[in-house]
Specification:
Elements lengths: L2 E2 L3 E4 L6 H8 L2 H4 L10 H14 L4 E8 L5 E8 L7 E8 L9 H16 L4 E7 L3 H10 L2 E12 L2 E11 H8 L12
Parallel strand pairs: 5-6
Antiparallel strand pairs: 1-2, 2-3, 3-4, 4-5, 6-8, 7-8
Helix pairs in contact: 1-3, 4-5
Length: 191
């Protein structure tokens, strides 16, 4: 089963995705603002992709992001750490295909993933952490309706310097106000 936005499709990660993800995960420009420091082997990436099915379910949902028009693999995204009692989850998003940066795929992915979280998982709050020195990502999250909650000083050490980590979130009522309430479960807002 896949979930479609205007330009992207969120689908299960398949073992065949490993080679592409291996290229991304070992590209220092792609991983600059991710919590990744060390090189990853192709075998490790194959195992990670193969194990993605076992990680699925309410607690951790991980998707491959592909371009709807031709199925090009663009990146990965997910909702992590959910519990049915709290209905709060941490969002992760990575557009690994650098040639697709700045073309709106991140925004469509974010909107589609939030729609899945709020309308399929019945979440009430989605939060994320973003490095302060990553203005493109911060602008994307603000545009999607995320609000700043806090600043964690010198929380990440990357490339020889400490940087602050910002916490941002969006709640179900904020999402519905911004994008409209669902007419039926699974509808992705087109605004």
């Amino acid at each position: 089963m896949a979930y479609e936005g205007e330009r992207v499709r969120l689908r299960a990660i398949e073992p065949g995705d490993a080679e592409t993800m291996f290229r991304w995960i070992n590209d220092r420009e792609v991983t600059r603002h991710l919590d990744l420091r060390y090189p990853t082997s192709l075998e490790w990436e194959r195992q990670w992709a193969s194990d993605a099915k076992q990680r699925g379910g309410y607690r951790n949902v991980t998707f491959a992001i592909e371009r709807r028009e031709d199925g090009l693999l663009l990146g990965t995204c997910g909702l992590h750490g959910a519990t049915p009692e709290d209905r709060v989850v941490e969002l992760g998003l990575n557009i690994g295909e650098k040639s697709m940066w700045g073309q709106g795929y991140g925004f469509d992915t974010l909107r589609t993933l939030l729609c899945f979280g709020f309308r399929e998982m019945n979440l009430r709050r989605v939060y994320l952490h973003v490095m302060e020195d990553h203005p493109r990502a911060r602008a994307l999250y603000e545009r999607a309706g995320f609000e700043y909650e806090g600043r964690h000083r010198e929380s990440r050490w990357t490339r020889g310097q400490a940087t602050a980590l910002l916490t941002m979130s969006i709640t179900r009522p904020e999402f519905d106000e911004r994008y409209g309430a669902a007419e039926e479960v699974g509808d992705v807002p087109r605004r």
